[in-house]
Amino acid sequence: MDRSPGTPGNEPNSLEYSTEGNIDLLSFQSGPSKRTIRDEDIVAVIDDEPPRTHRIVFVLNSEEPTSAAAKPKVKIQSLQVTDLPQSFLKVHSGTRLPPQFLIPRYRDETPNVHIVISTQSGIGEAQQFYDDVLKKVLDFLQCDSGSYSLHTTESEKSITNLSRTIFLPRANEGVAQTIVLLSGDGGVVDIVNVLLSSPRSESYVKPVIGLLVLGTGNALANSTGLNRDSTKGLRTLLRGRPHSLPSFTATFSRGSESLVDEGRSTEPLPTSAQGLGVVYGAVVCSWALHASLVADSDTTEYRKYGRDRFQMAAKELLVPSDGSASHVYKGRITLFKKDHEGFEDTVMLDRREHMYILASLVSNLEETFKISPHSKPLDGQLRLVHFGAIAATDVMRIMGLAAQGGLHIGDDSVGYDDIAGIKIDIEEKDARWRRICVDGKIVQVNEGGWVEVRSGPRDVLDIIAELDA
Predict the structure, then answer these.
(1) What is the mean pLDDT of each run of 10 residues along the chain (469 residues)?
(2) Which of 80, 104, 248, 459 could staple 244 via S-S, CB 3.0–4.6 A?
(3) Alpha helices in 164-307 (DSSP H)
(4) Rg of the chain over CA atoms, in angstroms?
(5) How much helix, strand and coil, in percent to the nearest 5, is found in the chain?
(6) If DSSP codes are grouped into helix, strand and coil, which group holds residue 73?
Protein backbone atom coordinates (compact mmCIF):
# COMPACT_ATOMS: atom_id res chain seq x y z
CA MET A 1 0.00 0.00 0.00
CA ASP A 2 1.36 3.38 -1.01
CA ARG A 3 0.58 6.27 1.31
CA SER A 4 1.35 9.94 0.96
CA PRO A 5 -0.03 13.00 2.73
CA GLY A 6 -2.27 15.68 1.37
CA THR A 7 -2.86 18.83 3.31
CA PRO A 8 -6.36 20.32 3.46
CA GLY A 9 -6.38 24.05 2.84
CA ASN A 10 -8.36 26.34 5.13
CA GLU A 11 -9.94 23.27 6.73
CA PRO A 12 -8.84 21.73 10.04
CA ASN A 13 -9.06 18.14 8.76
CA SER A 14 -6.19 15.78 8.06
CA LEU A 15 -6.20 13.89 4.76
CA GLU A 16 -4.36 10.77 3.67
CA TYR A 17 -3.99 9.40 0.12
CA SER A 18 -3.43 5.72 -0.56
CA THR A 19 -3.72 3.17 -3.34
CA GLU A 20 -4.80 -0.43 -3.03
CA GLY A 21 -4.09 -2.15 -6.32
CA ASN A 22 -5.60 0.17 -8.93
CA ILE A 23 -8.03 1.76 -6.47
CA ASP A 24 -7.50 5.32 -5.26
CA LEU A 25 -8.56 6.06 -1.70
CA LEU A 26 -8.63 9.36 0.15
CA SER A 27 -9.27 9.35 3.87
CA PHE A 28 -10.01 12.48 5.88
CA GLN A 29 -10.90 13.33 9.43
CA SER A 30 -14.38 14.80 9.92
CA GLY A 31 -14.86 15.59 13.58
CA PRO A 32 -14.33 12.43 15.62
CA SER A 33 -14.89 10.10 12.65
CA LYS A 34 -12.75 9.14 9.68
CA ARG A 35 -14.29 9.04 6.21
CA THR A 36 -12.98 7.48 3.01
CA ILE A 37 -13.50 8.94 -0.46
CA ARG A 38 -13.45 6.17 -3.03
CA ASP A 39 -12.41 6.78 -6.61
CA GLU A 40 -16.00 6.11 -7.70
CA ASP A 41 -17.26 8.91 -5.42
CA ILE A 42 -15.15 11.64 -7.03
CA VAL A 43 -17.03 14.00 -9.33
CA ALA A 44 -14.30 16.52 -10.06
CA VAL A 45 -10.88 17.76 -8.99
CA ILE A 46 -10.75 21.48 -9.72
CA ASP A 47 -7.61 23.64 -9.90
CA ASP A 48 -7.71 26.20 -7.10
CA GLU A 49 -5.64 28.96 -5.54
CA PRO A 50 -2.90 29.19 -4.31
CA PRO A 51 -0.71 27.08 -6.64
CA ARG A 52 -0.64 23.30 -6.08
CA THR A 53 -4.09 23.58 -4.51
CA HIS A 54 -7.10 21.61 -5.69
CA ARG A 55 -10.71 21.25 -4.65
CA ILE A 56 -11.93 17.67 -4.57
CA VAL A 57 -15.68 17.49 -5.19
CA PHE A 58 -17.28 14.17 -4.31
CA VAL A 59 -20.62 12.57 -3.54
CA LEU A 60 -21.36 11.44 -0.04
CA ASN A 61 -23.93 8.67 0.14
CA SER A 62 -25.82 8.19 3.37
CA GLU A 63 -26.48 4.78 4.82
CA GLU A 64 -28.50 2.43 2.63
CA PRO A 65 -32.24 3.19 2.64
CA THR A 66 -34.31 0.89 4.81
CA SER A 67 -36.65 -0.02 1.96
CA ALA A 68 -36.91 0.21 -1.82
CA ALA A 69 -39.44 2.98 -1.36
CA ALA A 70 -37.05 5.16 0.69
CA LYS A 71 -35.34 7.93 -1.22
CA PRO A 72 -31.53 7.65 -1.07
CA LYS A 73 -29.81 10.68 0.36
CA VAL A 74 -27.01 11.75 -1.95
CA LYS A 75 -25.08 14.85 -0.92
CA ILE A 76 -22.14 16.74 -2.39
CA GLN A 77 -19.08 17.70 -0.38
CA SER A 78 -15.72 19.25 -1.18
CA LEU A 79 -12.25 19.47 0.30
CA GLN A 80 -9.58 22.01 -0.57
CA VAL A 81 -6.24 20.18 -0.60
CA THR A 82 -2.62 21.08 -1.42
CA ASP A 83 0.19 18.85 -2.68
CA LEU A 84 -1.82 15.88 -3.90
CA PRO A 85 0.30 13.05 -5.37
CA GLN A 86 0.98 13.26 -9.11
CA SER A 87 -0.37 9.74 -9.60
CA PHE A 88 -3.75 10.97 -8.36
CA LEU A 89 -3.67 14.23 -10.29
CA LYS A 90 -2.82 12.44 -13.52
CA VAL A 91 -6.18 10.69 -13.35
CA HIS A 92 -8.42 13.31 -11.75
CA SER A 93 -7.02 16.81 -12.15
CA GLY A 94 -8.10 19.56 -14.47
CA THR A 95 -11.89 19.27 -14.36
CA ARG A 96 -13.39 22.27 -16.08
CA LEU A 97 -16.82 23.18 -17.35
CA PRO A 98 -17.15 21.01 -20.49
CA PRO A 99 -17.63 22.57 -23.94
CA GLN A 100 -21.26 21.46 -24.01
CA PHE A 101 -21.96 24.04 -21.29
CA LEU A 102 -20.17 26.88 -23.09
CA ILE A 103 -22.38 27.16 -26.17
CA PRO A 104 -23.78 30.57 -27.22
CA ARG A 105 -27.15 31.75 -26.01
CA TYR A 106 -30.24 31.81 -28.22
CA ARG A 107 -31.10 35.00 -30.09
CA ASP A 108 -33.52 36.06 -27.33
CA GLU A 109 -30.62 35.69 -24.85
CA THR A 110 -32.10 32.60 -23.17
CA PRO A 111 -29.57 29.82 -22.56
CA ASN A 112 -29.20 26.87 -24.92
CA VAL A 113 -28.17 24.70 -21.99
CA HIS A 114 -31.25 23.06 -20.48
CA ILE A 115 -31.61 21.10 -17.25
CA VAL A 116 -34.77 19.00 -17.12
CA ILE A 117 -35.92 17.61 -13.76
CA SER A 118 -38.25 14.67 -14.37
CA THR A 119 -40.24 14.61 -11.15
CA GLN A 120 -42.00 11.32 -11.92
CA SER A 121 -38.93 9.28 -12.87
CA GLY A 122 -37.86 6.39 -10.67
CA ILE A 123 -38.76 6.95 -7.03
CA GLY A 124 -38.93 10.72 -7.36
CA GLU A 125 -35.41 11.76 -6.32
CA ALA A 126 -34.60 14.03 -9.31
CA GLN A 127 -35.48 17.31 -7.57
CA GLN A 128 -33.44 16.41 -4.50
CA PHE A 129 -30.48 15.44 -6.67
CA TYR A 130 -30.59 18.78 -8.48
CA ASP A 131 -30.87 20.79 -5.26
CA ASP A 132 -28.29 18.90 -3.22
CA VAL A 133 -25.83 17.73 -5.87
CA LEU A 134 -25.99 19.02 -9.45
CA LYS A 135 -26.55 22.70 -8.66
CA LYS A 136 -23.70 22.73 -6.16
CA VAL A 137 -21.30 21.03 -8.56
CA LEU A 138 -22.14 23.56 -11.27
CA ASP A 139 -21.62 26.37 -8.75
CA PHE A 140 -18.12 24.98 -8.01
CA LEU A 141 -17.44 25.18 -11.75
CA GLN A 142 -18.69 28.78 -11.86
CA CYS A 143 -21.80 27.88 -13.83
CA ASP A 144 -24.55 29.70 -11.98
CA SER A 145 -28.29 29.27 -12.48
CA GLY A 146 -28.36 32.09 -15.02
CA SER A 147 -26.19 29.98 -17.34
CA TYR A 148 -28.90 27.42 -18.03
CA SER A 149 -32.66 27.10 -18.36
CA LEU A 150 -34.25 24.98 -15.65
CA HIS A 151 -37.36 22.94 -16.51
CA THR A 152 -39.38 20.89 -14.02
CA THR A 153 -41.85 18.38 -15.43
CA GLU A 154 -45.49 18.67 -14.44
CA SER A 155 -46.85 15.65 -16.31
CA GLU A 156 -45.72 12.73 -18.45
CA LYS A 157 -46.13 15.03 -21.48
CA SER A 158 -43.75 17.75 -20.24
CA ILE A 159 -40.58 16.52 -21.96
CA THR A 160 -42.49 15.90 -25.21
CA ASN A 161 -43.84 19.45 -25.07
CA LEU A 162 -40.39 20.92 -24.37
CA SER A 163 -39.04 18.98 -27.35
CA ARG A 164 -41.74 20.32 -29.67
CA THR A 165 -41.61 23.94 -28.53
CA ILE A 166 -37.89 24.45 -27.81
CA PHE A 167 -35.49 21.61 -28.66
CA LEU A 168 -36.77 20.79 -32.18
CA PRO A 169 -37.28 24.37 -33.44
CA ARG A 170 -33.84 25.46 -32.26
CA ALA A 171 -32.18 22.33 -33.70
CA ASN A 172 -33.83 23.08 -37.05
CA GLU A 173 -32.40 26.61 -36.90
CA GLY A 174 -28.91 25.15 -36.58
CA VAL A 175 -28.60 26.07 -32.90
CA ALA A 176 -26.39 23.92 -30.67
CA GLN A 177 -28.14 22.73 -27.50
CA THR A 178 -27.21 20.70 -24.44
CA ILE A 179 -30.00 18.96 -22.52
CA VAL A 180 -29.18 17.57 -19.09
CA LEU A 181 -31.88 15.04 -18.23
CA LEU A 182 -32.47 14.01 -14.62
CA SER A 183 -34.58 11.02 -15.58
CA GLY A 184 -34.61 7.44 -16.77
CA ASP A 185 -34.83 6.04 -20.29
CA GLY A 186 -38.30 7.52 -20.75
CA GLY A 187 -37.05 11.10 -20.96
CA VAL A 188 -34.62 10.19 -23.72
CA VAL A 189 -37.23 8.33 -25.77
CA ASP A 190 -39.66 11.26 -25.46
CA ILE A 191 -37.09 13.53 -27.10
CA VAL A 192 -36.11 10.93 -29.71
CA ASN A 193 -39.73 10.48 -30.78
CA VAL A 194 -40.34 14.18 -31.29
CA LEU A 195 -37.12 14.67 -33.24
CA LEU A 196 -37.60 11.62 -35.48
CA SER A 197 -41.31 12.09 -36.12
CA SER A 198 -40.96 15.71 -37.24
CA PRO A 199 -39.46 17.32 -40.35
CA ARG A 200 -35.81 18.32 -39.94
CA SER A 201 -34.17 21.10 -41.90
CA GLU A 202 -30.87 21.01 -43.75
CA SER A 203 -29.53 23.23 -40.99
CA TYR A 204 -30.49 20.72 -38.29
CA VAL A 205 -27.95 20.39 -35.46
CA LYS A 206 -28.22 17.39 -33.17
CA PRO A 207 -28.91 18.27 -29.53
CA VAL A 208 -26.54 16.73 -27.00
CA ILE A 209 -28.04 14.79 -24.10
CA GLY A 210 -26.35 14.46 -20.73
CA LEU A 211 -28.24 11.75 -18.84
CA LEU A 212 -28.18 11.60 -15.05
CA VAL A 213 -29.30 8.23 -13.74
CA LEU A 214 -32.56 8.84 -11.89
CA GLY A 215 -34.98 6.35 -13.42
CA THR A 216 -35.94 2.81 -12.44
CA GLY A 217 -34.34 0.31 -14.83
CA ASN A 218 -31.93 2.79 -16.45
CA ALA A 219 -31.02 0.42 -19.29
CA LEU A 220 -29.41 3.08 -21.44
CA ALA A 221 -27.31 4.40 -18.57
CA ASN A 222 -26.27 0.93 -17.43
CA SER A 223 -25.27 -0.03 -20.97
CA THR A 224 -23.21 3.08 -21.75
CA GLY A 225 -21.20 3.18 -18.51
CA LEU A 226 -23.02 6.10 -16.91
CA ASN A 227 -23.70 4.01 -13.83
CA ARG A 228 -20.16 2.67 -13.38
CA ASP A 229 -19.53 4.97 -10.42
CA SER A 230 -21.64 6.35 -7.56
CA THR A 231 -22.15 9.84 -9.06
CA LYS A 232 -25.28 8.87 -11.07
CA GLY A 233 -23.61 9.91 -14.32
CA LEU A 234 -22.41 13.30 -13.08
CA ARG A 235 -18.73 12.50 -13.57
CA THR A 236 -19.46 11.33 -17.13
CA LEU A 237 -21.37 14.55 -17.78
CA LEU A 238 -18.22 16.53 -16.93
CA ARG A 239 -15.59 14.24 -18.48
CA GLY A 240 -17.34 12.51 -21.38
CA ARG A 241 -17.90 13.59 -24.95
CA PRO A 242 -20.88 13.32 -27.32
CA HIS A 243 -21.52 10.10 -29.24
CA SER A 244 -24.28 9.28 -31.70
CA LEU A 245 -27.30 7.62 -30.11
CA PRO A 246 -28.59 4.74 -32.29
CA SER A 247 -32.33 4.20 -32.65
CA PHE A 248 -34.91 1.84 -34.12
CA THR A 249 -38.36 2.26 -35.66
CA ALA A 250 -41.37 0.25 -34.49
CA THR A 251 -44.23 0.29 -37.01
CA PHE A 252 -47.68 -0.90 -35.89
CA SER A 253 -50.76 -2.18 -37.69
CA ARG A 254 -53.75 0.15 -38.01
CA GLY A 255 -55.85 0.27 -34.86
CA SER A 256 -52.94 -0.05 -32.44
CA GLU A 257 -52.99 2.50 -29.61
CA SER A 258 -50.71 3.88 -26.93
CA LEU A 259 -51.70 2.97 -23.36
CA VAL A 260 -51.52 5.86 -20.88
CA ASP A 261 -52.68 6.69 -17.36
CA GLU A 262 -51.49 3.36 -15.97
CA GLY A 263 -53.20 1.50 -18.80
CA ARG A 264 -56.63 2.96 -18.09
CA SER A 265 -56.76 5.13 -21.23
CA THR A 266 -55.55 5.01 -24.82
CA GLU A 267 -54.19 7.59 -27.22
CA PRO A 268 -53.63 7.38 -30.98
CA LEU A 269 -50.10 6.71 -32.17
CA PRO A 270 -48.23 9.11 -34.43
CA THR A 271 -48.68 7.83 -37.97
CA SER A 272 -46.56 7.40 -41.07
CA ALA A 273 -47.51 8.58 -44.55
CA GLN A 274 -49.12 5.15 -45.01
CA GLY A 275 -51.35 5.66 -41.97
CA LEU A 276 -49.49 3.13 -39.79
CA GLY A 277 -48.59 3.83 -36.18
CA VAL A 278 -44.91 4.63 -35.59
CA VAL A 279 -42.90 4.75 -32.36
CA TYR A 280 -39.13 5.26 -32.15
CA GLY A 281 -36.84 3.76 -29.53
CA ALA A 282 -33.23 3.67 -28.40
CA VAL A 283 -33.28 0.78 -25.92
CA VAL A 284 -35.62 -2.22 -26.42
CA CYS A 285 -38.81 -3.38 -28.10
CA SER A 286 -40.43 -6.42 -26.51
CA TRP A 287 -43.50 -8.62 -26.46
CA ALA A 288 -44.66 -11.41 -24.14
CA LEU A 289 -43.28 -11.64 -20.59
CA HIS A 290 -41.04 -8.56 -20.64
CA ALA A 291 -43.68 -6.24 -22.13
CA SER A 292 -46.33 -7.58 -19.73
CA LEU A 293 -44.24 -7.07 -16.61
CA VAL A 294 -43.26 -3.53 -17.63
CA ALA A 295 -46.89 -2.65 -18.33
CA ASP A 296 -48.27 -4.29 -15.19
CA SER A 297 -45.67 -2.61 -12.94
CA ASP A 298 -46.18 0.87 -14.39
CA THR A 299 -48.48 2.07 -11.61
CA THR A 300 -48.11 4.47 -8.71
CA GLU A 301 -48.40 1.56 -6.27
CA TYR A 302 -45.65 -0.49 -7.95
CA ARG A 303 -43.34 2.46 -8.66
CA LYS A 304 -42.76 3.18 -4.99
CA TYR A 305 -40.81 -0.11 -4.84
CA GLY A 306 -38.21 1.16 -7.31
CA ARG A 307 -36.65 -1.45 -9.56
CA ASP A 308 -38.03 -4.25 -7.35
CA ARG A 309 -41.36 -3.60 -9.07
CA PHE A 310 -40.19 -5.57 -12.12
CA GLN A 311 -39.49 -8.70 -10.09
CA MET A 312 -42.79 -8.35 -8.27
CA ALA A 313 -44.75 -8.08 -11.52
CA ALA A 314 -42.79 -10.95 -13.10
CA LYS A 315 -43.58 -13.22 -10.16
CA GLU A 316 -47.31 -12.53 -10.48
CA LEU A 317 -47.18 -13.26 -14.22
CA LEU A 318 -45.19 -16.48 -13.84
CA VAL A 319 -46.92 -17.79 -10.71
CA PRO A 320 -50.31 -16.04 -10.60
CA SER A 321 -51.72 -15.57 -7.11
CA ASP A 322 -55.07 -16.99 -8.21
CA GLY A 323 -53.42 -20.36 -8.84
CA SER A 324 -53.81 -20.31 -12.62
CA ALA A 325 -51.04 -21.24 -15.04
CA SER A 326 -48.75 -18.60 -16.52
CA HIS A 327 -49.84 -17.37 -19.93
CA VAL A 328 -48.40 -18.80 -23.15
CA TYR A 329 -48.11 -16.09 -25.81
CA LYS A 330 -49.18 -16.99 -29.33
CA GLY A 331 -47.91 -15.43 -32.51
CA ARG A 332 -45.73 -15.74 -35.62
CA ILE A 333 -42.20 -14.32 -35.52
CA THR A 334 -40.28 -13.27 -38.64
CA LEU A 335 -36.62 -12.26 -38.38
CA PHE A 336 -34.78 -10.09 -40.90
CA LYS A 337 -31.05 -10.80 -41.02
CA LYS A 338 -28.14 -9.54 -43.11
CA ASP A 339 -25.84 -12.08 -44.73
CA HIS A 340 -22.07 -11.60 -45.02
CA GLU A 341 -22.55 -9.59 -48.23
CA GLY A 342 -25.14 -7.28 -46.70
CA PHE A 343 -28.18 -8.82 -48.39
CA GLU A 344 -31.27 -9.37 -46.26
CA ASP A 345 -32.61 -12.84 -45.47
CA THR A 346 -36.00 -13.63 -43.94
CA VAL A 347 -36.19 -16.33 -41.26
CA MET A 348 -39.36 -17.60 -39.60
CA LEU A 349 -39.13 -18.95 -36.06
CA ASP A 350 -40.34 -22.55 -36.04
CA ARG A 351 -42.69 -22.08 -33.08
CA ARG A 352 -45.88 -20.10 -32.47
CA GLU A 353 -45.91 -20.27 -28.67
CA HIS A 354 -43.59 -17.94 -26.82
CA MET A 355 -42.59 -16.65 -23.40
CA TYR A 356 -39.91 -14.04 -24.13
CA ILE A 357 -39.30 -11.89 -27.23
CA LEU A 358 -36.99 -8.88 -26.79
CA ALA A 359 -35.08 -6.90 -29.44
CA SER A 360 -32.37 -4.76 -27.86
CA LEU A 361 -29.87 -2.05 -28.74
CA VAL A 362 -28.35 -2.24 -25.24
CA SER A 363 -26.54 -4.81 -23.13
CA ASN A 364 -28.02 -4.29 -19.66
CA LEU A 365 -31.66 -3.80 -18.70
CA GLU A 366 -30.54 -3.25 -15.11
CA GLU A 367 -27.13 -2.76 -13.55
CA THR A 368 -26.44 -6.48 -13.19
CA PHE A 369 -29.03 -7.85 -15.65
CA LYS A 370 -27.04 -8.37 -18.87
CA ILE A 371 -29.70 -9.36 -21.38
CA SER A 372 -27.46 -8.95 -24.47
CA PRO A 373 -23.83 -9.68 -23.54
CA HIS A 374 -22.50 -9.21 -27.10
CA SER A 375 -23.80 -5.63 -27.28
CA LYS A 376 -21.23 -2.85 -27.04
CA PRO A 377 -22.09 0.70 -25.97
CA LEU A 378 -23.89 2.57 -28.76
CA ASP A 379 -22.87 0.01 -31.42
CA GLY A 380 -26.28 0.26 -33.15
CA GLN A 381 -26.71 -3.50 -33.62
CA LEU A 382 -30.17 -4.90 -32.85
CA ARG A 383 -30.02 -8.27 -31.09
CA LEU A 384 -32.92 -10.58 -30.29
CA VAL A 385 -33.23 -12.65 -27.11
CA HIS A 386 -36.07 -15.17 -27.24
CA PHE A 387 -37.39 -18.44 -25.86
CA GLY A 388 -40.58 -20.41 -26.12
CA ALA A 389 -43.24 -21.62 -23.68
CA ILE A 390 -41.30 -23.14 -20.79
CA ALA A 391 -42.06 -23.74 -17.12
CA ALA A 392 -42.00 -20.81 -14.71
CA THR A 393 -39.10 -22.37 -12.81
CA ASP A 394 -37.06 -22.51 -16.02
CA VAL A 395 -37.90 -18.88 -16.82
CA MET A 396 -36.66 -17.81 -13.40
CA ARG A 397 -33.51 -19.91 -13.84
CA ILE A 398 -32.80 -18.24 -17.20
CA MET A 399 -33.37 -14.79 -15.73
CA GLY A 400 -30.96 -15.70 -12.96
CA LEU A 401 -28.33 -16.61 -15.54
CA ALA A 402 -28.84 -13.23 -17.24
CA ALA A 403 -27.96 -11.61 -13.92
CA GLN A 404 -24.67 -13.55 -13.92
CA GLY A 405 -23.05 -11.66 -16.76
CA GLY A 406 -25.35 -12.88 -19.53
CA LEU A 407 -24.83 -16.63 -19.08
CA HIS A 408 -28.39 -17.28 -20.29
CA ILE A 409 -27.36 -17.12 -23.95
CA GLY A 410 -25.55 -20.42 -23.47
CA ASP A 411 -28.74 -22.16 -22.38
CA ASP A 412 -30.28 -24.53 -24.93
CA SER A 413 -33.72 -22.96 -24.43
CA VAL A 414 -32.56 -19.45 -25.38
CA GLY A 415 -32.16 -18.01 -28.86
CA TYR A 416 -29.79 -15.07 -29.40
CA ASP A 417 -29.47 -13.47 -32.84
CA ASP A 418 -28.05 -10.40 -34.54
CA ILE A 419 -30.96 -8.99 -36.54
CA ALA A 420 -31.76 -6.14 -38.91
CA GLY A 421 -35.38 -6.32 -37.82
CA ILE A 422 -38.27 -8.41 -36.55
CA LYS A 423 -41.99 -8.70 -37.28
CA ILE A 424 -44.39 -10.05 -34.65
CA ASP A 425 -47.85 -11.13 -35.84
CA ILE A 426 -49.83 -11.49 -32.62
CA GLU A 427 -52.46 -14.23 -32.41
CA GLU A 428 -54.14 -13.27 -29.14
CA LYS A 429 -57.79 -12.34 -28.50
CA ASP A 430 -57.26 -10.83 -25.03
CA ALA A 431 -55.84 -7.29 -25.31
CA ARG A 432 -53.71 -7.88 -22.20
CA TRP A 433 -51.46 -10.22 -24.16
CA ARG A 434 -51.17 -7.86 -27.15
CA ARG A 435 -49.08 -5.23 -25.37
CA ILE A 436 -45.74 -4.16 -26.82
CA CYS A 437 -43.05 -2.33 -24.82
CA VAL A 438 -40.94 0.31 -26.58
CA ASP A 439 -38.41 1.76 -24.14
CA GLY A 440 -40.95 1.56 -21.33
CA LYS A 441 -43.82 2.98 -23.36
CA ILE A 442 -46.69 0.52 -23.86
CA VAL A 443 -48.58 0.04 -27.13
CA GLN A 444 -51.65 -2.18 -27.41
CA VAL A 445 -51.77 -3.89 -30.80
CA ASN A 446 -55.18 -4.36 -32.39
CA GLU A 447 -56.63 -7.88 -32.59
CA GLY A 448 -55.04 -9.67 -35.54
CA GLY A 449 -52.39 -6.96 -35.71
CA TRP A 450 -48.62 -6.80 -35.78
CA VAL A 451 -45.52 -4.77 -35.05
CA GLU A 452 -42.38 -4.56 -37.16
CA VAL A 453 -39.09 -3.26 -35.76
CA ARG A 454 -36.20 -2.04 -37.93
CA SER A 455 -32.81 -0.53 -37.14
CA GLY A 456 -32.55 3.18 -37.82
CA PRO A 457 -33.32 5.75 -39.12
CA ARG A 458 -30.30 8.01 -38.87
CA ASP A 459 -29.48 9.32 -35.45
CA VAL A 460 -30.84 12.73 -34.45
CA LEU A 461 -29.32 13.01 -30.99
CA ASP A 462 -25.94 12.68 -29.29
CA ILE A 463 -25.42 11.37 -25.77
CA ILE A 464 -22.44 12.18 -23.52
CA ALA A 465 -20.49 9.05 -22.62
CA GLU A 466 -16.99 7.85 -21.76
CA LEU A 467 -16.44 4.93 -24.10
CA ASP A 468 -13.43 2.66 -23.83
CA ALA A 469 -10.98 3.05 -26.66
Answers:
(1) 43 58 61 75 88 88 53 78 82 84 95 95 88 94 94 93 98 98 92 95 97 88 92 94 96 96 92 94 97 90 79 92 94 94 92 98 94 96 97 96 96 97 98 96 97 91 86
(2) 459
(3) 168-172, 185-196, 219-223, 234-239, 289-296, 300-303
(4) 24
(5) 25, 35, 40
(6) coil
